Protein backbone atom coordinates (compact mmCIF):
# COMPACT_ATOMS: atom_id res chain seq x y z
CA UNK A 1 0.00 0.00 0.00
CA UNK A 2 1.04 3.62 -0.55
CA UNK A 3 1.56 5.53 2.70
CA UNK A 4 1.97 9.30 2.56
CA UNK A 5 0.02 10.42 5.62
CA UNK A 6 -0.37 8.62 8.96
CA UNK A 7 -3.05 9.78 11.37
CA UNK A 8 -2.87 9.57 15.16
CA UNK A 9 -6.43 9.54 16.44
CA UNK A 10 -7.36 11.55 19.52
CA UNK A 11 -8.79 8.38 21.07
CA UNK A 12 -5.20 7.44 22.03
CA UNK A 13 -5.46 10.12 24.72
CA UNK A 14 -6.81 7.43 27.02
CA UNK A 15 -3.16 6.39 27.33
CA UNK A 16 -1.11 9.41 26.18
CA UNK A 17 -1.56 12.73 24.34
CA UNK A 18 -1.66 12.14 20.57
CA UNK A 19 0.73 15.04 20.02
CA UNK A 20 3.61 13.29 21.78
CA UNK A 21 3.28 10.26 19.50
CA UNK A 22 3.30 12.58 16.48
CA UNK A 23 6.51 14.08 17.87
CA UNK A 24 7.95 10.61 18.49
CA UNK A 25 7.29 9.69 14.86
CA UNK A 26 8.60 12.95 13.42
CA UNK A 27 11.57 11.27 11.75
CA UNK A 28 9.49 8.95 9.59
CA UNK A 29 9.39 9.47 5.80
CA UNK A 30 5.62 10.17 5.97
CA UNK A 31 3.46 13.03 7.24
CA UNK A 32 2.07 12.29 10.71
CA UNK A 33 -0.91 14.29 11.97
CA UNK A 34 -3.52 14.27 14.75
CA UNK A 35 -7.03 13.31 13.61
CA UNK A 36 -10.36 13.18 15.43
CA UNK A 37 -12.40 10.12 14.56
CA UNK A 38 -13.70 10.48 11.02
CA UNK A 39 -12.49 14.09 10.88
CA UNK A 40 -9.14 14.28 9.12
CA UNK A 41 -8.93 10.66 7.96
CA UNK A 42 -9.78 11.54 4.35
CA UNK A 43 -6.18 12.54 3.75
CA UNK A 44 -4.70 9.52 5.56
CA UNK A 45 -3.89 6.02 4.42
CA UNK A 46 -3.33 4.66 7.94
CA UNK A 47 -4.16 5.53 11.55
CA UNK A 48 -2.91 4.77 15.06
CA UNK A 49 -5.97 4.51 17.28
CA UNK A 50 -7.77 3.18 20.33
CA UNK A 51 -11.18 3.11 18.60
CA UNK A 52 -12.48 2.08 15.20
CA UNK A 53 -14.44 4.54 13.06
CA UNK A 54 -16.50 4.05 9.90
CA UNK A 55 -13.93 6.08 7.98
CA UNK A 56 -11.31 3.44 8.83
CA UNK A 57 -12.90 1.21 6.19
CA UNK A 58 -11.21 3.38 3.56
CA UNK A 59 -7.72 3.01 5.04
CA UNK A 60 -5.07 0.48 4.23
CA UNK A 61 -3.76 -0.02 7.77
CA UNK A 62 -5.03 0.49 11.33
CA UNK A 63 -2.73 0.14 14.34
CA UNK A 64 -4.23 -0.51 17.79
CA UNK A 65 -2.38 1.01 20.74
CA UNK A 66 -3.52 -1.98 22.81
CA UNK A 67 -2.59 -5.62 22.52
CA UNK A 68 -6.24 -6.62 22.93
CA UNK A 69 -8.20 -6.10 19.72
CA UNK A 70 -11.59 -7.56 20.63
CA UNK A 71 -13.24 -4.17 19.91
CA UNK A 72 -12.20 -4.22 16.24
CA UNK A 73 -14.57 -5.62 13.52
CA UNK A 74 -12.38 -8.33 12.00
CA UNK A 75 -14.82 -9.50 9.33
CA UNK A 76 -15.57 -5.94 8.26
CA UNK A 77 -11.87 -5.11 8.05
CA UNK A 78 -11.12 -8.20 5.99
CA UNK A 79 -13.95 -7.34 3.60
CA UNK A 80 -12.58 -3.80 3.24
CA UNK A 81 -8.98 -5.09 2.93
CA UNK A 82 -7.84 -3.09 5.97
CA UNK A 83 -4.78 -4.46 7.75
CA UNK A 84 -4.90 -4.45 11.56
CA UNK A 85 -1.79 -4.53 13.75
CA UNK A 86 -1.61 -4.35 17.53
CA UNK A 87 0.80 -3.39 20.28
CA UNK A 88 1.45 -6.81 21.73
CA UNK A 89 4.89 -7.22 23.23
CA UNK A 90 5.13 -3.85 24.99
CA UNK A 91 3.16 -4.49 28.18
CA UNK A 92 5.12 -7.22 29.94
CA UNK A 93 7.14 -4.99 32.27
CA UNK A 94 4.24 -2.80 33.40
CA UNK A 95 1.77 -5.67 33.79
CA UNK A 96 4.32 -7.82 35.58
CA UNK A 97 5.14 -5.09 38.09
CA UNK A 98 1.46 -4.35 38.66
CA UNK A 99 0.71 -8.01 39.40
CA UNK A 100 3.68 -8.15 41.77
CA UNK A 101 2.30 -5.04 43.47
CA UNK A 102 -1.10 -6.65 43.95
CA UNK A 103 0.48 -9.79 45.39
CA UNK A 104 2.63 -7.80 47.80
CA UNK A 105 -0.31 -5.61 48.81
CA UNK A 106 -2.31 -8.65 49.87
CA UNK A 107 0.55 -10.45 51.60
CA UNK A 108 1.89 -7.41 53.43
CA UNK A 109 -1.66 -6.03 54.03
CA UNK A 110 -0.76 -2.74 52.33
CA UNK A 111 -4.31 -2.21 51.04
CA UNK A 112 -5.55 -2.27 54.63
CA UNK A 113 -2.99 0.34 55.69
CA UNK A 114 -3.97 2.64 52.82
CA UNK A 115 -7.64 2.33 53.77
CA UNK A 116 -6.82 2.98 57.43
CA UNK A 117 -4.80 6.06 56.51
CA UNK A 118 -7.88 7.57 54.90
CA UNK A 119 -9.67 7.16 58.23
CA UNK A 120 -6.66 8.32 60.31
CA UNK A 121 -6.76 4.91 62.00
CA UNK A 122 -3.67 3.31 63.56
CA UNK A 123 -4.42 -0.40 63.30
CA UNK A 124 -1.57 -2.89 62.99
CA UNK A 125 -2.56 -6.29 61.55
CA UNK A 126 -3.03 -9.30 63.77
CA UNK A 127 0.15 -11.28 64.39
CA UNK A 128 -0.78 -13.93 61.82
CA UNK A 129 -2.43 -11.72 59.16
CA UNK A 130 0.67 -10.70 57.20
CA UNK A 131 2.79 -13.17 55.24
CA UNK A 132 5.53 -13.27 52.64
CA UNK A 133 5.14 -14.40 49.05
CA UNK A 134 8.40 -16.37 48.91
CA UNK A 135 7.55 -20.05 48.62
CA UNK A 136 3.94 -19.40 47.60
CA UNK A 137 2.64 -20.57 44.21
CA UNK A 138 1.01 -18.57 41.44
CA UNK A 139 -0.91 -20.03 38.51
CA UNK A 140 -0.46 -17.77 35.49
CA UNK A 141 -3.25 -18.37 32.99
CA UNK A 142 -1.76 -17.28 29.68
CA UNK A 143 1.98 -17.37 28.99
CA UNK A 144 2.23 -14.78 26.24
CA UNK A 145 3.86 -11.37 26.66
CA UNK A 146 1.73 -10.46 29.67
CA UNK A 147 2.20 -13.81 31.34
CA UNK A 148 5.93 -13.73 30.68
CA UNK A 149 6.19 -10.38 32.44
CA UNK A 150 4.26 -11.79 35.41
CA UNK A 151 6.46 -14.89 35.59
CA UNK A 152 9.66 -12.82 35.55
CA UNK A 153 8.52 -10.52 38.37
CA UNK A 154 6.99 -13.17 40.61
CA UNK A 155 9.90 -15.60 40.29
CA UNK A 156 12.14 -12.71 41.32
CA UNK A 157 10.14 -12.55 44.55
CA UNK A 158 10.58 -16.27 45.17
CA UNK A 159 7.10 -17.30 44.00
CA UNK A 160 6.80 -20.73 42.39
CA UNK A 161 4.90 -20.72 39.08
CA UNK A 162 2.40 -22.99 37.38
CA UNK A 163 1.26 -21.97 33.90
CA UNK A 164 -1.70 -22.56 31.61
CA UNK A 165 -1.70 -22.29 27.81
CA UNK A 166 -3.07 -24.12 24.79
CA UNK A 167 0.05 -26.23 24.20
CA UNK A 168 1.82 -27.60 27.31
CA UNK A 169 5.33 -26.86 26.07
CA UNK A 170 7.89 -26.02 28.76
CA UNK A 171 8.40 -22.35 29.68
CA UNK A 172 11.45 -20.96 31.54
CA UNK A 173 10.63 -20.23 35.16
CA UNK A 174 7.42 -22.26 35.07
CA UNK A 175 7.44 -25.52 37.02
CA UNK A 176 4.55 -27.14 35.18
CA UNK A 177 2.42 -26.11 32.19
CA UNK A 178 -1.22 -27.22 31.95
CA UNK A 179 -3.71 -26.93 29.11
CA UNK A 180 -7.05 -25.09 29.51
CA UNK A 181 -8.84 -28.43 29.90
CA UNK A 182 -6.79 -28.94 33.06
CA UNK A 183 -7.47 -25.48 34.45
CA UNK A 184 -9.18 -26.61 37.64
CA UNK A 185 -6.22 -28.81 38.52
CA UNK A 186 -3.82 -25.99 37.68
CA UNK A 187 -5.44 -23.47 40.04
CA UNK A 188 -6.10 -25.87 42.90
CA UNK A 189 -2.75 -25.41 44.65
CA UNK A 190 -2.06 -21.72 43.93
CA UNK A 191 -2.15 -18.79 46.35
CA UNK A 192 -2.51 -16.44 43.36
CA UNK A 193 -4.36 -17.13 40.11
CA UNK A 194 -3.43 -14.57 37.46
CA UNK A 195 -5.53 -14.13 34.31
CA UNK A 196 -3.29 -12.87 31.47
CA UNK A 197 -4.98 -14.20 28.32
CA UNK A 198 -6.49 -12.28 25.40
CA UNK A 199 -10.28 -12.22 25.11
CA UNK A 200 -11.41 -14.72 22.48
CA UNK A 201 -14.37 -17.05 22.07
CA UNK A 202 -12.34 -19.70 23.90
CA UNK A 203 -11.35 -17.50 26.84
CA UNK A 204 -14.66 -15.70 27.42
CA UNK A 205 -15.87 -16.85 30.85
CA UNK A 206 -12.83 -19.11 31.19
CA UNK A 207 -12.59 -18.49 34.92
CA UNK A 208 -16.10 -19.55 35.83
CA UNK A 209 -17.82 -20.79 38.98
CA UNK A 210 -16.25 -24.25 38.67
CA UNK A 211 -12.73 -22.84 38.39
CA UNK A 212 -13.31 -20.46 41.29
CA UNK A 213 -14.62 -23.35 43.37
CA UNK A 214 -11.42 -25.28 42.60
CA UNK A 215 -9.27 -22.48 44.06
CA UNK A 216 -8.02 -22.54 47.63
CA UNK A 217 -10.02 -20.61 50.24
CA UNK A 218 -6.92 -18.50 50.95
CA UNK A 219 -6.26 -17.80 47.25
CA UNK A 220 -6.48 -14.47 45.42
CA UNK A 221 -7.63 -13.94 41.85
CA UNK A 222 -5.75 -11.29 39.84
CA UNK A 223 -7.24 -10.22 36.49
CA UNK A 224 -5.11 -8.13 34.12
CA UNK A 225 -6.59 -9.71 30.98
CA UNK A 226 -10.12 -8.63 30.00
CA UNK A 227 -13.15 -8.41 32.24
CA UNK A 228 -15.12 -11.02 30.31
CA UNK A 229 -12.42 -13.65 30.88
CA UNK A 230 -13.84 -13.96 34.40
CA UNK A 231 -17.48 -14.77 35.15
CA UNK A 232 -18.01 -11.64 37.25
CA UNK A 233 -21.29 -12.69 38.98
CA UNK A 234 -19.65 -15.99 39.90
CA UNK A 235 -16.65 -14.10 41.26
CA UNK A 236 -18.85 -11.85 43.40
CA UNK A 237 -20.58 -14.93 44.80
CA UNK A 238 -17.27 -16.65 45.51
CA UNK A 239 -16.01 -13.58 47.37
CA UNK A 240 -19.23 -13.10 49.34
CA UNK A 241 -19.32 -16.78 50.31
CA UNK A 242 -15.65 -16.89 51.31
CA UNK A 243 -14.76 -19.45 48.65
CA UNK A 244 -11.64 -17.42 47.86
CA UNK A 245 -9.78 -14.85 49.95
CA UNK A 246 -9.91 -11.86 47.62
CA UNK A 247 -9.22 -10.41 44.19
CA UNK A 248 -7.27 -7.66 42.42
CA UNK A 249 -9.16 -6.54 39.34
CA UNK A 250 -7.93 -4.14 36.69
CA UNK A 251 -10.58 -5.05 34.10
CA UNK A 252 -14.34 -5.58 34.25
CA UNK A 253 -17.28 -6.72 32.16
CA UNK A 254 -18.58 -3.13 32.17
CA UNK A 255 -16.11 -0.23 32.33
CA UNK A 256 -16.09 2.02 34.23
CA UNK A 257 -17.20 -0.35 36.98
CA UNK A 258 -20.77 0.71 37.91
CA UNK A 259 -21.29 2.42 41.26
CA UNK A 260 -23.75 -0.33 42.16
CA UNK A 261 -21.15 -3.11 41.92
CA UNK A 262 -20.58 -4.87 45.26
CA UNK A 263 -16.89 -5.16 44.33
CA UNK A 264 -16.35 -1.54 45.40
CA UNK A 265 -17.17 -2.26 49.01
CA UNK A 266 -15.26 -5.49 49.56
CA UNK A 267 -12.29 -5.19 51.93
CA UNK A 268 -10.26 -7.90 50.19
CA UNK A 269 -10.79 -6.59 46.66
CA UNK A 270 -8.47 -4.11 44.95
CA UNK A 271 -10.14 -2.25 42.08
CA UNK A 272 -7.99 -0.36 39.58
CA UNK A 273 -9.29 1.49 36.47
CA UNK A 274 -7.86 -0.63 33.62
CA UNK A 275 -4.43 0.93 34.06
CA UNK A 276 -2.11 -2.01 34.75
CA UNK A 277 -0.25 -1.39 31.50
CA UNK A 278 0.20 2.37 32.00
CA UNK A 279 3.71 3.81 31.84
CA UNK A 280 5.11 7.23 30.93
CA UNK A 281 6.99 5.53 28.06
CA UNK A 282 3.90 3.93 26.53
CA UNK A 283 3.96 6.24 23.50
CA UNK A 284 7.58 5.35 22.83
CA UNK A 285 6.80 1.63 22.89
CA UNK A 286 3.87 2.10 20.50
CA UNK A 287 6.00 4.38 18.33
CA UNK A 288 8.68 1.72 17.91
CA UNK A 289 6.17 -0.74 16.45
CA UNK A 290 4.57 1.89 14.22
CA UNK A 291 7.94 3.09 12.96
CA UNK A 292 9.04 -0.46 12.15
CA UNK A 293 5.87 -1.07 10.17
CA UNK A 294 6.14 2.21 8.27
CA UNK A 295 9.63 1.21 7.21
CA UNK A 296 8.36 -2.23 6.21
CA UNK A 297 5.62 -0.72 4.07
CA UNK A 298 8.19 1.46 2.31
CA UNK A 299 10.04 -1.62 1.05
CA UNK A 300 7.06 -3.94 0.63
CA UNK A 301 7.72 -6.24 3.60
CA UNK A 302 5.05 -7.84 5.78
CA UNK A 303 3.77 -5.93 8.80
CA UNK A 304 4.79 -7.09 12.26
CA UNK A 305 2.11 -7.74 14.93
CA UNK A 306 -0.48 -8.22 12.19
CA UNK A 307 -3.84 -9.51 13.43
CA UNK A 308 -5.99 -9.08 10.31
UniProtKB/TrEMBL annotation:
InterPro entries, alphabetized = D-isomer_DH_CS, D-isomer_DH_NAD-bd, Dhydh_Halo, NAD(P)-bd_dom_sf
Task: Give a yes or no for keyword Coiled coil in this entry.
Answer: no
**One GO MF term attached to the UniProt entry:** oxidoreductase activity
What is the protein name for this chain? Phosphoglycerate dehydrogenase
Which key words tag this protein in UniProt? NAD, Oxidoreductase
Q: Which organism is it from?
A: Halobellus salinus
- CDD domains reported for this sequence: 2-Hacid_dh_1
D-isomer specific 2-hydroxyacid dehydrogenase NAD-binding domain sequence ranges: 101-276
Q: Which domain of life is it from?
A: Archaea
- SUPFAM superfamilies linked to this entry: Formate/glycerate dehydrogenase catalytic domain-like, NAD(P)-binding Rossmann-fold domains
Q: Does the record bear Ribosomal protein in its keywords?
A: no
